[in-house]
Amino acid sequence: MTPLLLALGASLAWGVADFVGPLFSRTLGSIRVLFWAQVGGVAAIALAVAVRGEGPRGWPVLFAILASLGGMLGLFAYYRGMLAGAMSVVAPIAGVSAIIPVVFGIVTGDHPSAPQIVGIACALAGVGLASIEHHEGSHRVAAGVGLALLAALGFGFYFPWMHAAGKVDFWWASFVFRVTALVLMAGVVTAKRPPTLKLRPKELAIVCAVGIGDTLGNALFAASSGHGLVSLTAVLASLYPIVTVLLAAAVLRESVAPLQKAGIVLTLTGVVLISV
């Protein structure tokens, strides 16, 4: 039960961080938010590793580098998608990343249950419905859907590699992941050259807290990998869109078309069934 609770804890941490971060990126810009979030995350996990006072338990913690490549691709696409479209539409579609670790688990010997197979079908159908919005007598693909699908691909790639790294040493896996993420964001900043990276003290504190929350999610998921199957822990961790959708509904009062609401419900139902 402990791996499952840890995975659910990761889902909660990610759900909150993935609401607050994109919300602030609407006014501060995604590059500034993502950069300082990585700084906050690195500071937090570096402190934890220093207090622990132990070296890594094996070289496979370096698999977290590959996890970071996928995770940051997913996160950047996710933030950009949130800027383009409604959180309550983008988040569930990104949560379909749960399909990838299930497929990975099947390939490596796991056997999906009937509810998991139904869940995959529901998730895919739900994405289709959530992706369509009504506009002036016609239907079109909703804003941010393409980026949400890219985010799902990146997040899905993250799970197997972080699972492998976390089985060896979840503290160091989390540290390697976050340092890699910061290096990647530093590269983006160098390439994009935003006008400024400065934030006011209150904004900096909130954005760093987002990074700490995201890092907490990484650590909890990596810790769950010690005893749980990737096809199960990754899916439970992928329930974070439920948290994001609920926060978007409560705080932002987002307006979503009825067909898209059906798609959101179907997508979230699919993610839940995949975890059975």
Explain what you see.
It is a single chain. This protein has 276 residues and is mainly α. It has one domain (2-274). The protein has twelve helices and two strands. It has helices at 2-28, 30-52, 63-84, 87-94, 99-107, 114-130, 145-168, 170-192, 201-224, 230-237, 240-252, 258-274; strands at residues 132-135, 138-141. The chain has a two-stranded antiparallel ribbon. A hairpin with a 2-residue loop joins β1 and β2 (138-141). It is globular and about 50 Å long. The two termini are 13 Å apart.
List its salient traits:
276 residues, mainly alpha
Give the overall average pLDDT.
Answer: 85
Q: Please report which band the strand proportion falls in: under 5%, 5-15%, 15-25%, 25-35%, 35-45% or over 45%.
A: under 5%
Q: Report the end-to-end length measured between terminal Cα atoms.
A: 13 Å
What gyration radius follows from the Cα positions, in whole Å?
A: 18 Å
Beta strand count: 2
Structural class: mainly alpha
> How many H/I helices?
12
